[in-house]
Amino acid sequence: MMSKLFKIGFVILIILMLSDACGKRVNISQEPKVKLLKNLSFPKIDFEKSPKLRLLVWHDFIPRAVYDIFRTVYGIEVVPTLVDNNQGVWKIMRKFPDKYDLLFISNHMVKRMIKAGYIRRLNHDHIKNIRLLEEKVFRLKYDKGLRYTIPIAKGCVGIAFNINYVPGIPRTWGFVVNAIKNDYLNFRIGVRNEYRFSLGLALIYLGYSPNTTNLAELEEAKRLLIANIRHRGMTLIGPESTKRLIDEDLLLALDWNGNAAAALKKNYNIRFLLPEGKAIVSYESIAINSKSKNVRTAEFFIDFLLIPQISALITNYNYFANCNPASLSFIHPIIRNGPGFIFPKEKYAVFLEDLGENDKLYERIWEEVLRARPDPSLIKLPLPEVGIYREISTR
Predict the structure, then answer these.
(1) How do residues 320-359 score in pLDDT, each as one tens digit?
(2) At what angle do helices 4-18 and 64-74 cross, to 10 degrees?
(3) Residue 165 burial by CB count (10 A; 0-12/13-18/19+): exposed, middle or buried?
(4) pLDDT for 358-378, tens place per residue?
(5) Cys staple from 344: which of 96, 100, 142, 348, with CB 3.0 to 4.6 Å?
(6) Has residue 101 got a pLDDT over 70?
(7) Cβ(338)–Cβ(259) under 8 Å?
(8) Which long-range contacts (CB under 8 A, 24 or more apart) does 211-219 make?
(9) Averaged pLDDT, 138-163
């Protein structure tokens, strides 16, 4: 077996070689990675390990380098399957309930997964680094005591916009409604392609709860989204939203703060703000499949992700705040002080909740949104290179 010093040095070399090729995210610099890992001592395995783990995980969420470190140090291969959203995880688990060992889900899906018997209760004795998590996550309503899930990151949905083409400050959600009257924004507005989040934002704008089961309120939210698709060419965005913001194919998006932070690194015209009032906050957590045959190794991998330097490596890649305060000193200041760490005050933070059978109501409403198409007469205007308002002022 390699000596510990050689092993760590080899891991650092892997980071330096693979970081830039492990995804679409932008790496801040190479130097922090060396400082981050050079004094890291990895815990030993004291059980019979499995050779491989299969993981369902979000696009651009965990850098390839993390899996390579784990494989190099422990000889365990992690095979990730990338998923766009919670609906994708749900569909895969229904079709292949015993294929994956670990899966990522958002907070509102936890109870649904528990009821379906898809995730197993955690053994905290095997996840020593759980003690490093911030205290408040143990009191979260959807999984008190973290009996089934471990939060790896947290995010919130706000307004990402390009100051070269969208004037003003989005102080309220109504800003979006006024801004999209600008014809240059036709086909350049985006909202998350996930029904709970997009319908939830529409409901908040209309003054309703994003967890409502009132059909009339949901119908009103549906009409709002469909009207913007038809009359403004609003698009439903997924993992590609960051690149589209960078390329200015999207000028205004109701998107995650971490995605906006990643876009800002490449396009300095991108800004992200939370309007006054309520905003949706989400915890992205990892859970163990109840049918996994590699439970002990899966627990060890979760514990590995909670090593402060590894938690920081993930945040330095995906730009989302994590739930591990011990990692803060290892997170790059640009990220720590950027949009990915913008959150509403606690009294304004809204969490999506498990709706049980009423979730089918949202699914049915969303199907109508998915069928909506832009009006054929709608035109996507070419953008002035210098920006819309500078162009107007020079005429």
Answers:
(1) 999 999 999 999 999 999 999 999 999 999 999 999 999 9
(2) 160
(3) buried
(4) 999 999 999 999 999 999 999
(5) 348
(6) yes
(7) no
(8) 211/352, 211/353, 211/355, 213/355, 213/358, 213/361, 215/361, 218/361, 218/362, 218/365, 219/365
(9) 97
* CATH fold match for the domains 4-154+282-341 and 155-280+344-393: yes
pLDDT higher than threshold 60 for residue 15: no
Tokens matching residue 331: 């997170």
Identify the sign of the CA torsion 111, 112, 117, 123: negative
Q: At what angle do helices 359-371 and 215-232 cross, to 10 degrees?
A: 20
Identify whether the C-beta of residue 193 lies closer than 8 Å to the C-beta of residue 85: yes
Residue of 239, 378, 389, 317 whose CA lies nearest to 68: 317
Interval 254-263: pLDDT, tens? 999 999 999 9
Tokens of 29: 């610099």
Choices 3.40.190.10, 3.40.720.10, 1.10.1240.10, 1.10.1060.10: CATH for 155-280+344-393: 3.40.190.10
C-alpha to C-alpha distance for 278 and 263, rounded to whole angstroms: 24
As a whole number of angstroms, the distance between CA 63 and CA 78 comes to 12
- The pair of three-digit structure tokens given for residue 97, joined into one six-digit string: 């309930």
What is the residue-wise DSSP string for 162-221? ETTTS-S---STHHHHHHTTSGGGTT-EEEESSHHHHHHHHHHHTTS-TT---HHHHHHH
Map tokens 């400050």 to a residue.
Answer: 169
